[in-house]
Write a structure and sequence with these properties.
Number of strands: 0
Radius of gyration: 22 Å
Distance between the termini: 9 Å
Largest sheet: none
Helix content: over 70%
Shape: elongated
Length: 162
């Protein structure tokens, strides 16, 4: 007997769906951009020895952020699956964290040094933080919908006659 039902096909489609070409190209672009960011920051750190401490710390933080995005892109590309949108939630969390650190850092530098340009940068950081939070919330809602659909399909499969 063939145990394949429309429900099992739908469940298999949800759990085994591969990344779309657009998502793969986007993650490859992210990987290349993050690698480029790491390369530039490491070159600056290694060749410019007379930089102020604040600048060295900033470049080191940017290098760390780039490494995090490299690791994320490799993780998603290695799995080649939609990962039930876990990758979107993780990317959203990373974006919120990095935007928040940028915003707080520039606000602190702007208030400590009285530099209006830093306060403008903090305002831009706050705007990008709001966008990152909105995208994270959207990823959580999408993940919750997919998990609910998967539970519904699993329940229907368990109740289906064998």
């Amino acid at each position: 007997m063939n145990d394949i039902t429309p429900l099992s096909i739908a469940l298999g489609r949800i759990t085994e769906e591969t990344l779309s070409s657009r998502a793969r190209y986007g993650h490859v672009a992210l990987l290349l951009a993050a690698l480029g960011m790491c390369l530039v920051n490491s070159a600056l750190l290694l060749t410019e020895t007379a930089l102020p401490t604040r600048t060295v710390v900033t470049f080191a933080l940017m290098f760390f952020v780039g490494l995090c995005w490299v690791a994320y892109a490799i993780w998603v590309l290695r799995h080649r699956r939609s990962l039930l949108v876990h990758h979107r939630v993780i990317a959203g969390r990373m974006a919120v964290a990095f935007c928040s650190v940028f915003t707080l850092g520039t606000a602190w530098l702007g208030s400590a040094g009285g530099q209006p340009s830093m306060m403008m940068a903090a305002g831009l950081g706050a705007a990008t933080s709001v966008v990152a939070i909105a995208l994270l919330a959207r990823a959580h809602r999408h993940r919750a919908r997919l998990l609910a659909r998967r539970r519904e399909l699993e329940r229907a499969l368990s109740q289906a006659p064998s």
